[in-house]
Amino acid sequence: MHDHQKGTQCLHAGYVPASGEPRNIPIIQSTTFRYGSSEAMGALFDLEAEGYFYTRLQNPTSDRVAAKICALEGGTAAMLTSSGQAANFFAIFNICSAGDHVVSSAAIYGGTFNLFAVTMKRMGIEFTFVDPNCSQEELEAAFRPNTKAVFGETIANPALIVLDIERFAKAAHDHGVPFIIDNTFATPVGCRPFEWGADIVTHSTTKYMDGHANCVGGAIVDSGKFDWTKYPDKFPGLCTPDESYHGVTYTERFGLEGAYITKAVVQLMRDFGATPAPMNAYFLNIGLETLHLRMPRHCANALAVAKHVKDHPKIAWVSYPDLEGDKYHELAKKYMPNGTCGVVTFGVKGGRKAAETFMAGLKLASIATHVADAKTCVLHPASSTHRQLTEAELEAAGVGADLIRLSVGIEDVADIIADIDQALEQV
Question: Does pTM surpass 0.85?
Answer without folding.
Answer: yes
